[in-house]
Request: fold
Amino acid sequence: MFAWLAAQVVEKLWRRSGRLMLRWPAQHAGLAGGVALAALYAAFSGWGVPSQRTVWMLAVVGLLRLGGRSWPWPLVWLVVCTAVVAIDPWALMQPGFWLSFVAVGVLFAAGNGGPDDASAGMAARFHRLLREQWVVTLALTPLTLLLFQQISAVGLPANLIAIPWVTLVITPLSMLGVLVPFLWNAASWAVQALSWVLEWLARWPFATLSMHTPPLWMAVAGVLGGIVVAMRLPWSVRALGLPLLVPALLWQSPRPPTGEFELLAADIGQGNAVLVRTASHSLLYDAGPRYSLDSDAGHRVLVPLLRAFGERLDTVVLSHRDTDHTGGAPAVLAMQPQAKLLSSIEADHPLQTLRKAERCVAGQRWTWDGVDFEILHPADSDYSSFTKPNAISCVLRVGNGRATALLAGDIEQLQEAALTLRHADLSADVLLVPHHGSKTSSTRRLLEAVRPRLALVQAGWRNRFGHPAPDVVKRYADQDIWLFDTPHCGAATWSSTAPGEMFCHRNTARRYWHHQMY
Reply:
C-alpha cells in the first residue's frame, strides 16, 4: 500500500515538470519511485524477511511493466515466485511465502469478482470483498491445515473487519502522523479497537479447529481442490475439486493397535517430554524446559506436535517441579483443558492455579486399551522425608505383558536403591535415563535390575551440565545397553511392536542442513 501511495505522489509531482516528462514518462517514474521508496520504508522498518520479500516482488513486477508489454498474470506470478526463491531459497520453508503466493494466485485465477469502477455502489463493493475473502479462505484452508495443523473458523469475519479497517483507517492515520503527530494517537486507538474485536472473536467457542496433519500428497491435493472450487468456472467443473479436499480434511493419524503402545520423545533440548500413545488414549510425561521469559517447549514444540497428531491428552504427568520438566506445561494445559494433571509439585506451585494436580503416589494404576500404567515412585512417606524435588520424581512404568517402558524422571542414587528394594521386578525394554544421564544417577544396581535393551537420554546439545556424563555412558556400554541421546537422535520413537528398535528422526527424516555428528 505504501508503494502504491508513493507511486501516485511521485507520478503527480513528475507531471509538473515538462523537462522531466520529456526525459521519462511519468508512469514509469512513478513506478520506479514507488518501488524505491517502498525499499527505503522496508529498510527503515527493520528490513525483516517479509519486507524483503515484498520489495523483491514489487521490483520484479515493476521491471516487467517498464518493458511496456502486457504480461499474462500466470507468467507474472511465476516470474515473481522464481525471483523471490532465487534471492532467498529459504523462503520456501516459510509459511508466509506459500500463504501469500497461493492467495494472490487464487485471486488472479478467480477473477476480480465484481465491478472495478469507482461508481460501484457500497453493496457491490461489499459483495466483491466478501467473495474475495471467501475464495481465499476456501482455497487456503488445506494449506493452513498443512502448515499449522489448525483452521480458523472465525478467519472470514475477522478478515472482513480487519482488512478494510487496516487499509482505510489505521494505515492512512499512521502515514499522515508524519505530518500531524496527533494522528498517531488516533491510529493507536484504532489498533486497540481492532485488537479488542479480534480478541472477542478468538474467544468464540470453536474459534479454531485443530486437525491432524495429512501426508504431503493429501495436502497438495487439498490445496489444488480448494483452488479448483474457488475459480470462476461452471459449478460442474468446480465440483471436481471437492473429492480432492475430502482426504486432507478427514485424515486421521495412525495409532497403535489395541494392546500396543508407543513412545515419542520430543526433541526439546535439556529436559524431558515423552508422549505415550495407545489405541485411543494419550499421556504426556513431562513438558520440557522454559527457554526464556517468552519462549518454552510447550509453545515451540509440544503444542504443534500435539496438533499434528490431533492428540487429545487424557493425562499430563509432571514428574517434579524443575523447570526443565514443567516449563512447557502452561501452554500444554491451556491447549488440553480436559487433561488430568498428575504430579509431585507442591500445593502452592503456580501450576496449581491452572489445573489442580493430583499427587502421584506409588501404587497408582490404570489400564488403557490393554496397556497397564503404574506409578512406582515416590511412596507417600517420601513427600515428608525428602525436600529435594528430584527425590520425589514420579516414576512411571508402562507395559502390555510383552514390552515395557520405564520413565524415571530425575531420581538419583538413593531413589534408585529404594526402587530396587520395593519392586522385585523392574525389568523393561526401554529406559528413559534418570536425570538426563547425570553422574548422580544410573547406578549399576538400577541397570542390573531393569536390564533394558535400549536407553534414551533427553539432554541438550553441549549442555552446561555435561549430560550424559562419560562415566554413565560407559556404565551403559558395560551392560550392553544401546544408548541414544537427543543431540544425535533428534526426536525418538519407540513402539511395543518392535521393542528392540529405536527410530531416530535425524535418520528417518534427515535434511541437508542437519549437522553430521559422530
User: Anything to note?
Assistant: The chain has 21 helices and 19 strands.
